[in-house]
Each structure stands twice: as C-alpha cells, then as structure tokens.
Amino acid sequence: MTSPTKTMATNPEIRRRYARAPRIEAPEHLFAVGQSVQLKEKLSPLNDVAATFTVTGLVPKSGDTLQYRIRSEAERHERVMAEDRLEPAGTGIPNKPSGKDIR
Q1: Where would I find the H helices in the chain?
Q2: The dihedral sign for the CA sequence 66, 47, 88, 35
C-alpha cells in the first residue's frame, strides 16, 4: 500500500493543481529616498529648473519605467519624474578647472 503523500507527489494532475504561481519580483529603484539627483536634460529650453533635487519618495512603475517624487530647495513643490530622466547628482556636470595652471 502506498502512502497518500507519495501518491500526491507522483500524480501530475495533483501537482499541477497545487503548484504555486511563479514569483514575480518587484523591480528595484536605482535611487534611494534622500539621495541627490539631477535631470539628464532640461525640461524646456525656456525654463531654468534647479540643478539638484532630493528624492522624497518612490513611486510604483508606470508603463515600463519606475518613477520618483523629487524636490528642490529652490522650489515649493514636488515633481514626479521617470527614472530614465534622472541621474546621480554631479555626473552630468563637466569637470571644472581646478585653478592650478599646469604647464
């Protein structure tokens, strides 16, 4: 006589019925709350937005991209910005001369 556990383990119909759905992992945000970020490009050629923003919140995925709530000290409001339009602060600014004249 076979045990019920062994029968369940070998019966494909029972295994299919009780199979767990595959786990779908939530995508991870690249930036953390409190991190300084900047826009990759200006929002508009006419407005000069603040250079550096602080991430104030993580927003769930919209379409294919993750979003963030960001805020600048120079502005009174928050913005929601897609992850692909942001970069870590300081990465898009060209290197400034150090003031030393190298000859």
Answers
A1: 4-10, 12-17
A2: negative
- Give the domain 28-93 fold: SH3 type barrels. (2.30.30)
If one counts every other C-beta atom within 10 angstroms of the C-beta of residue 31, the result is 20
Mapped onto helix, strand or coil, the DSSP state of residue 67 is strand
Residue type, 37: V
Tokens linked to 38: 């900047």
pLDDT in tens, the chain (103 residues): 555 555 556 677 776 777 776 666 666 888 999 999 998 887 666 666 667 899 999 998 878 889 999 999 888 899 999 999 999 998 754 443 344 444 4
**Where do the domains of the chain lie?**
28-93
